[in-house]
Structure formats: structure tokens, C-alpha cells
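Per reviewer request, we include the raw input and output of the structure prediction for the construct analysed in the revised manuscript.
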Amino acid sequence: MKRSDIPTEYLLVKAKTNSEWDACDFAIMNITGEWKQIQKKRLEVIKIIENDEDIKSLNYFDTHVEFFRFSKVYYPVVEEWLSERNRVFIELEKGDLKELKQPKNSLCHYQMQISKDGNAIYKAYGKHTEEEFRTVEFSLWELIDFNTHLVINP
């Protein structure tokens, strides 16, 4: 795994959990071309409902994210990267994800929650505990078009 100064298909973002016994420190989002097309369609829906005061956000089933814990053995540099900013583009090599430590919970019910301003978070829940695991907020508008000025650390 290497940090990238240019946008890639993988975005490392801060994450957290409300669990009292488990840990979650970051997530890795897989931003493919197909993913960007799906987000553009979702943002079109957001535009339709943006003036409806009763709707605050929309939730979508979405599994383009994996949650992890910091490790002193495997990629300790991740903690350093995320101490400087909320998100970092990375390059992954085959096998990198297998070395990262996942939360102890088995996660399910993966979803993306998109607010009316186009910002989103990923969430998942512990299969047996219903504890929440979530990323920090990120802008879909920025991620769907890598050619625009991308603010890495808002």
C-alpha cells in the first residue's frame, strides 16, 4: 500500500464505531468508474428532493467499502497518514487488504447515507450486536469527477 498524491480507485478515510469492545479506525472505499456512475444517478435523485424539508438524507445499500483497525505490525503508516487528514488516496497491491486488521464484529447491512448537500458516509452494523461502524463524511461531488479541484483535507 502506498499513499498517492493523485486520485486513485482507493480512498482511505477515517472511521469509527460506537462499540464499547470493538475498534474501527479507518475504511477503504473502492471508487471505480461504475461506482462514480451510480453516485451521479444518486445525486440526481438528491437534486429532486433537495427542497423537501421532511427528507434529510437517503440511504442506499452499498458495499464498496471495508472497515479496519489500526495495526502496529501491518501498515502502521496508515495511522500517521490519517493523523494529518481525514482521507488519502492510496494504491493497493494484491494481498494488501488481507494484511489489514478488520473489526472483530462480523459486519452486515452496508449502506451509504447521502445528505441533501451531496455529502455522504458509509455505515455498516455488527451482525449480532447492531453496533454501528461509520466513515467520516465525504463529498460525492468531488469524488465523481477527479478532474475538478479535489479538497483532500477539508
